[in-house]
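Forwarding the complex inputs:
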Amino acid sequence: MTCKRALRLLQLSRPGEISPRERRKLDEHVLRCSACATERKKILKSDIRIAEAREFVPRPEDARELTAFIMEAVRGSAKEPARRDRVPAGTRTLFSARPGLPVFAGVLAVGVAILPALMAVQTWTVLKKVSALEAAMAVRGGPVLVSRAAAAPMTLTIEARGGRERLVIDKAALGNLLQLARRLSAEDFARLERILDLVSFTPWGASVRSLSEEDRMFLIKKTNDLRTVLRSRAKENNHAIQ
Amino acid sequence: MISMDHMDNDRATALVARSRGGDERAFEELVVGHQGYSYALAFRFLGNPEDAREVVQDAFLKVWTSLHAFDPARTFKTWLSRIVVNTSLDKIRRLKRRRTLPLIENAAPDRASTDPENSPEREQARKELFGQVLEIAGRLPSRQRSVFILRDLEDLEMEEIASVLSISPAAVKSNLCHARRAVREGLLKSEITGRFRHDL
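Prediction (whole assembly, two chains):
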């Protein structure tokens, strides 16, 4: 084992973080290497400090008041929780009403209206929608950050936060597409889902996929890259792209 | 130490099922059973009580509006953790800041006790150390910070963290390595600086 490898494994110092075999090799290395042995001592010392920090568990000053605070928001939000025919709103499924950009709404409305005709060439539909996004982004001069307060339905936006880009798609804007998706055969449905990389369809709604997919989106800095990604994905799936 | 409130997953799943039907009392029980854990988790990301409260409120609101999306095959705690982590990160991004010094003065301690291990002095020392660790962790990229907080402060298992963050176990390890190295170096530096100041 090299020192570089040993130093990496030393960071994974808590039980269960490395395999018994790795642990054994690491121990053997540390016995022979004084530099790594010194490093291990430092790490053990800092582990004690981190464990001490872990012992401090912040608590709300008034738990009852916090419960009331939460329930007040819940009661104010809706009469009842969302059902399966509503838009998933948890984690990073981004269907809450979002800020609107009229240009997006217009472009999207046209796109959605002609969608049934385009379904014969599903991949083209996907690229067309993305192109509409790109066009809208070009008008805005790049990714757009929109405040949540200015929420409006019928939007399809790119939102940049903390250097990341992500799609925010409103259910209403995709309503027709969803209707269509429900009527697709299982095979076509799966194909559509594979190609439309960023948006996941379910029988009751559509959602932007969460964290891991957001990583991919993080790589998509330029809109051209977005198209490239979609093209390469489609190629992988042996779908012709127009 | 995990601050998870004591509610087993079966109970939580049953409450989710009742809440789906619009039973606010069931949902309130779910809130009471998990708000402490959620608050501690949010606080560890945000470092101050006000932001933590807001995040917890937002997170439970998301839980309420997306109860249908809960998969009973997974644990409620994992699902909730994911929502709290994402809401915390969103909040941090919205605030467009990286925490420099957590305002932990108003954080109520976990428990009051006459046990010497939990004496006020000991608790104060922990709190200061906690503040130092949060400050260092607050400078990490969000994924590393999330992994570090979930593993070293929340004490979640590696697989659980992978599930909460929707990343592979290998990515958890890799991020944990980077995060720990940075936190350890930061602690060492602060220790040296502290000694230097003391010597002055």
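The mean pLDDT of chain B is 80.
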